[in-house]
Amino acid sequence: MDKETIPQELLDQRKSDKFNELLRKRLLPVIGITIFLVIWEVAVRILELPSYLLPTPSEIAITMVERFHDLLQNSWVTAYEMLLGYFLAIAIGVPLAITITASKTFDNFITPILLFFQTVPKISLAPLFLVWFGVGTMPKVLVAFLISFFPIVIDTAVGLRSISPDMIDLAKSMGATKQQIFTRFRLPTSLPYMFSGLKVASTLAVVGAVVGEFVGADKGLGYMLLVANSNLQTALMFGTIVALTVQGLILFYIIQFLETMLIPWHITVRSGKEQEFGTM
């Protein structure tokens, strides 16, 4: 149905519905967080809890403003370690997943090794990295790499294997080479799975960097969290946790934005756009 044949009242109703849906999608999370913070603030003040046990959100905000320079300086350190480990996991994980799906022999050889290293608690390896590489960037990068590596490999491999055999047979019948089948069929089909693994790994990379800083560091948000804990500066601890959360969210939404740009045809992207903007 063309827009010219749709009554103006119906068009106005559609626009109103889209605006209300967009308003609910944007405002409801903000309202929920605001209500939570207000209840937190009021409860702490009524119960008269000491700030070293549970500070109010206003105390946390004031502390973050007062220590903004320290938080920002240490945030850059943690972000650097997190991103190095994350991109190293992508650089190794994606080619490894491609090799696993291309060779059954290599799959049988490497999968048990990957499972073994995945079941090993990563925090138990951090002290070893500290002994081997000293107090520096490398141990944090390696822990971030190990924690974020497995989801990328597994999800990418699952995506590369998810293509229908009928589609491969159709491509072969049309004279497609192995390289063309991979670049034009397997790879595009695997992208939704790959981005799913990348989004999971983006949140785990923050955890890995902080775990590495817990074991041994002289800077970074993890180090700042330990110092605040030893001095019973609970408000600063909460502020540091907020800074870590913001880092993880920024990386997550960057990956999500890239997903919408690279695979706009996928149902998860299209359904999100339809919910936000409606269908014409």
Label this structure with key terms.
flat; mainly alpha; disordered C terminus; 280 residues; MetI-like fold
Helical/strand content category: mainly alpha
Approximate helicity band: over 70%
Shape: flat
The CATH H-level homologous superfamily of the largest domain: MetI-like
Oligomeric state of shown chains: single chain
Give the topology, please:
Elements: H1 8-47, H2 57-66, H3 68-102, H4 104-119, H5 122-133, H6 137-161, H7 165-173, H8 178-215, H9 221-230, H10 234-262, H11 267-277
Descriptive account of the structure:
The chain has 280 residues and is an all-alpha fold. The protein has two domains: 1-48; 58-274, MetI-like fold (Orthogonal Bundle), CATH 1.10.3720.10. It contains eleven helices and no strands. It has helices spanning 8-47, 57-66, 68-102, 104-119, 122-133, 137-161, 165-173, 178-215, 221-230, 234-262, 267-277. The chain is flat, with a radius of gyration of 24 Å. Mean pLDDT is 82; it is low at 274-280.
Brief overview:
By secondary structure, the chain is mostly helical. It has helices at residues 8-47, 57-66, 68-102, 104-119, 122-133, 137-161, 165-173, 178-215, 221-230, 234-262, 267-277. Helices cover 84% and strands 0% of the residues.
